[in-house]
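Reference record
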Amino acid sequence: VEVQGKKLTAGEYIGELLTWLAKKAPAAGLVLVLATQRPDSKTIPSKLRAVLGSRFALRVIDWRDSNIVLGEQMNTRGYDSSRLLPSHKGVGILRPDGETEAGADVLALTVRTFYMPNEDWRELCERGRGLREAEGTLSGHAAGQEAQPMLDHAAVAKAIGSGAPMAAEAVRAAEVELPKPLASVVDYLEECDDGRDFVPTSELVEALGLEMTTFGRDMVELGCRSTRDRVPTADGVKQVRGYAVADLLAAAERLRDAAVLEGEVIDGER
């Protein structure tokens, strides 16, 4: 797909549109629900993941997949959806965005969704088919008719690549060069892409070759303040200072959006 002279893959373009929708839709009373088997960077871009709120993990293969959904080290806190049994139909671990009936301080909880076995669905569909046959309203594939495409796929592809305003904004924002050291931090997070929610300050300064005090001061000026969280170390779980990944990505997004709105490109050299 070509948007404003820049070529994007269909997946990249859809990711940009979903990110825009996830940020704007709640104000219009719309709730965006995304489902995937393994939400890594190839299926859900980091910018999109940063603006998603509640997370719900059904049974997965191992704890790594569970952490990708629920957040870094959630398995060490007792929340691991890989431990759910095959018999736990419709059961998953919910990490809510906001207060729940269980209380505002609840990090996550195991819940069961409304669940209907396949046998019940089959019985329901067969009964519905019988009623439609009796009324003579059965049509389409169920009646043996050839399905007619409702959309002209070529026209849809052309429309998607026509450069809608919101897509153009997304492309311009992606081209904005972030100031250092935030640019280096974002690049580092995208390279790691391990699904965690928190990154220690010590890890960042070591990986990027920066001085701790200067790094902290520069990040504050860019709207990023460090916090404390518990992370596993060689000596056990310890509380360390660092940054929430969602806060870092949100700060980068704010700077990009501000540059687009003001018609400016932020110089990468401070």
Summary: The longest helix spans residues 118-135. The domain at 2-115 is CATH 3.40.50.300 (Rossmann fold).
